[in-house]
Amino acid sequence: MSEILSTMSSNIIQGKMADMGALTHKALAEGLEAQEILNNGLMPGMNHVGVEFKAGNMFVPEVLRSARTMQASMEVLKPLLAESGGGMVGKVLLGTVKGDLHDIGKNLVSMMCEGAGFEVKDLGTNKEPDAFVAAVKEFEPNVVGMSALLTTTMRAMEHTIKALEEAGVRDTVKIMIGGAPVTQSFADDIGADGYASNAAAAVDLAKQFVGAI
Ligand code: B1M
After folding, report:
1. Is the pLDDT reported for residue 125 higher than 70?
2. How far apart (Å, rounded) are the C-alpha atoms in residues 32 and 35?
3. Is there a contact between 4 and 28 (Cβ–Cβ < 8 Å)?
4. What pLDDT was estimated at residue 47?
5. Is residue 24 a contact partner of residue 37, using CB atoms and an 8 Å limit?
6. Would you state the pLDDT for residue 75?
7. DSSP letter at 89?
8. Helix (H/G/I), strand (E/B), else coil: 121
9. Atom of ligand 1 nearest to the CA of 145
10. What residue owns the CA closest to ligand 1's atom 56?
11. Residue 84 — pLDDT band, cuts 50, 70, 90?
């Protein structure tokens, strides 16, 4: 790995976000392709964060900082990656379901999916089933991810899956769900394709869905 990519990777691990935009411009000025910066600078850093988070050696505030550091670089790279038509592993549509305003965990999933090279569309919180349906039609994601933190809003995930079925788009996507009260057996019960207990596991699942691991 070149020195600048190695610095970017360790900046992500350490959450040093101040220099990331400038470093990204510098790497591009040195002739590195956006794709190369993503694959060999940013992703190794975020992968390391994912491993440490799963192992319990890094905690939510640190992971959020790392994800924001990565995002500072992605702001520069995204238009270039879109132009080249390559780069993205797949598309993930995310949202917190109807009635639920919690978004810290969902944002973490969003940032880590971006860190893993997915193009992410985040619908935000309190999203009606119809909002997911409309976004699936427009954004054409590979993966739809739903988050719920309340026992009272978990069922909205089931309603959303039903709405996707009724709209005829259920089979065009893989569905993953997560959030503190959600379990694998609940995912099985409502017909989701998978459950992830944390953001790193969500990234692994999304990668499995698109055949990236
Ligand atoms: Co609320 N809240 N809250 N709250 N809140 C909980 C969830 C609660 C457990 C607190 C408690 O009573 N002990 C409780 C739920 C009880 C239940 O249903 N069994 C609760 C309640 C009751 C409420 C209100 C009803 C309170 C009230 O007004 N009376 C109200 C509801 C509002 C609404 O949504 N309609 C409410 C409001 C709020 C705030 C707005 C004040 C705030 C949310 C701010 C925000 O999100 N922007 C808030 C908060 C912060 C919490 C706690 C304290 C923290 C949640 C959090 O962000 N955790 C929470 C108690 C707790 O969990 N200790 C609580 C950190 C976050 C990183 O973890 O979201 O679990 P988490 O995400 C993890 C995984 O779950 C997973 O990955 C993440 C990272 O590893 N994950 C996914 C999450 N989504 C995923 C999606 C995936 C895959 C993995 O795939 C798509």
Report:
1. yes
2. 8
3. no
4. 84
5. yes
6. 87
7. -
8. strand
9. 91
10. 104
11. low
Tell me the sheet residues that pair with 122: 94
Token readout for 138 is 């427009």
Mean pLDDT of 8-14: 96
Task: Name residue, tokens 């220099």.
Answer: 19
Whole-number Å distance, alpha carbon 149 to ligand 1 midpoint, is 5
pLDDT band at residue 71, thresholds of 50, 70 and 90? confident
Secondary structure class of 59 (helix, strand, coil): coil
CA of 148 to the centre of ligand 1 (A): 8
191 CB burial (10 A radius; 0-12, 13-18, 19+)? middle
Strand partners, 121: 93
Cα(98) to ligand 1 centroid in Å equals 14
Distance (Å) from CA 160 to ligand 1 centroid: 20
**Whose C-alpha lies nearest to ligand 1, atom 43?**
102
Ligand 1: residues within 6 Å at CB? 60, 94, 99-106, 108-109, 145-147, 149-152, 176-181, 196, 198-199, 202
Is the pLDDT at 213 greater than 80? The verdict is no
